[in-house]
Amino acid sequence: MKNDCSVVKDLIPLYVEGLVSEETKEFIDEHRQSCENCKNLLENLAKSYNEQETNDNKKEKIWSEIASKERKKKKKKYLTLSLASVILVTLVVLGVIFLPKPLQKIYYENQTTQYDFNFTEQTLAKTGFTENDIHVASEAVKKSFEEHSDDRKLLRLAYDEKETIDENKIVYNPNHADAIVFIGDYYFFEDPVAGDGSRLRNNWKWFVKKDSSGEWKIIDQGYD
């Protein structure tokens, strides 16, 4: 019996945590029926273990609630900042649109032109154009604004990779074959057409193609 008690006392911590085999569990259950000391030890240890587990669960629950509240605060803060950013951008855009035209002109005159010529090697291979072709072709668009710098300002110019690859452009205009397509925004300093009060052109497209002499020229432009 004494040796059994020593073995049981060594195994009780594992027994309480459910880490013993079924045979060992049966051995301990049989022993505690006939040993009051081991029975009390087992009950006390089990009680202590359950209390500790309950406390750990409470702590985990508290920390989980704290973490959840922090996540909600961060999400609320992020949404607030995002909304504020959208409102700010909207106010700036509306502010510019509804500025008196003389002030609009000053605003756009001082804007720096944004260039975006992003492309991948895969799409270059599909079109047959090189990186140098794209940059040289863009100069044709830039040159057209330099020649009319007194009445218009180029605000943004980007290489339209998707449109350049799209073969459907040829269906709409066969002359667009082998043309590099750019998209951008620009502003007229004066009303472009009598009765046309819209001076800002957004997402305007330029089709630039190499002529027989090897010079890149704008062959077409406008909205879709």
Summary of the model, kept short:
The chain has 224 residues and is of the alpha+beta class. It is 59% helix and 17% strand. The chain has eight helices and five strands, in the order ααααβααβααβββ.
**How would you describe the shape?**
elongated
Uncertain segments: none
Label the structural class: alpha+beta
Contiguous helical run count: 8
The proportion of strand residues reads 15-25%
Which value, in Å, is the CA radius of gyration?
38 Å
Main sheet strand line-up: 1-2-3-4-5
| Major sheet | 5 strands, mixed
* Helicity, as a percent range: 55-70%
Following the backbone from N to C, one meets helices and strands in this order, namely HHHHEHHEHHEEE
Number of separate strands: 5
What distance separates the N and C termini?
Answer: 95 Å
Mean pLDDT: 78
Total number of distinct structural domains: 2
Question: Can you walk me through this structure?
Answer:
By secondary structure, this protein is an alpha+beta fold. The protein has two domains: 1-98; 101-222, no CATH class. Helix content is 59%, strand content 17%. The chain has eight helices and five strands; from the N terminus they run ααααβααβααβββ. It has helices at residues 2-16, 22-34, 36-97, 101-109, 121-127, 131-146, 161-165, 168-172; strands at residues 114-116, 152-159, 180-188, 200-210, 216-222. A five-stranded mixed β-sheet has the order 1-2-3-4-5. A hairpin with a 5-residue loop joins strand 4 and strand 5 (216-222). Helix 1 (2-16) crosses helix 2 (22-34), helix 1 packs parallel to helix 3 and helix 2 (22-34) crosses helix 3. The mean pLDDT is 78.
